[in-house]
Amino acid sequence: MAYTNFEPIIGTILNMTRGNDCCSQTMSLRTEKGIVNFIIGPETYVIDNRPLRAGLRVAAYYDASLPVPLIFPPQYRAQIVAVLTRDEQIMLNEFDRNLTARDGSLQLNLARNTNIETLNGQRVTCNPGNQTLLVFYSATTRSIPPQTTPRRIVVLC
Asked: Are 39 and 46 a contacting pair, CB within 8 Å?
């Protein structure tokens, strides 16, 4: 799967409702720019298989190359959903062998307690460089590029 077209929307879940069938749900998010709806279907990866409920802060990624209905509020098909802690940031990007994002927007410094795993939860024991990574982090330096020691990295093989 190509992740280069994935765009994040971060917000707080307002509600979860049943979709058009038993295998889908609609998640309504309150974001800084207003309400956004996401279809959560069988193909949606929910990190850690966390139950989604009202009040959780999440990042929902959608494929910006796919067509979307011209309705209000906007509605996208979620590809990845991750629950975030209060001050946590998230980034999906390709990282080089030195763990610098392809666009130069972030450099990773790994620590012993950085949890590195695959999308299905398997532990990664090799260097996660030269991969597409979903990075969970909080503080960054003010350097260029900003540096962080992530709490967690999900390698999207």
From this structure: no
